[in-house]
Amino acid sequence: MKILPWEYNFQAFTAENFPDLHLPVLVASLLMLVITIVVYNVRTKQLHRHAIYCQMYEWLMWTGVITFSLEIVYWIFRFDFIMVWGTLVIGLATMVWTRFRRFPPYFAAYERQLAKQRYFSRQRFTHPESTIRAKSSRRRRRR
After folding, report:
1. What angle do CA 32, 44, 27 make, to 5 degrees?
2. Helix (H, G, I), strand (E, B) or coil at 12
3. Sequence spans of domains, the chain
4. Is residue 132 exposed (0-12), middle (13-18) or buried (19+ Cβ within 10 Å)?
5. What is the pLDDT of residues 5-46, one digit of tens each?
6. Is the distance from CB of 18 to CB of 9 less than 8 angstroms?
């Protein structure tokens, strides 16, 4: 260590200044970018009838794409290290906030709505008469 620890934040993010982090940040960013896109595609196909879940995965996908793409840009253009870790912290915090703070109230409301629909649907078909077709008032004459 030749400089103070907080002064590393203002050093260019290169292999010479950060030999332990330079390549792993690129590999992790590429890997997380691909994983984010694959998870979005798989989960939205599975949950295409549940719009609130698709919205959450869209939020997570765009947050991941922005965060991990910026990390790759920082790696290529050798930004200061404070930009690299700052973007990573803010991006991951946004993903956690989206999953655990923003959408759970919407999930609870959606579950209540589904429960009401199931209840009224079940109530309508519990009576035996509801499945029997009513006789028409006019009968057809056969010749």
Report:
1. 10
2. strand
3. 13-127
4. exposed
5. 899 999 999 999 999 999 999 999 999 999 999 999 999 999
6. no
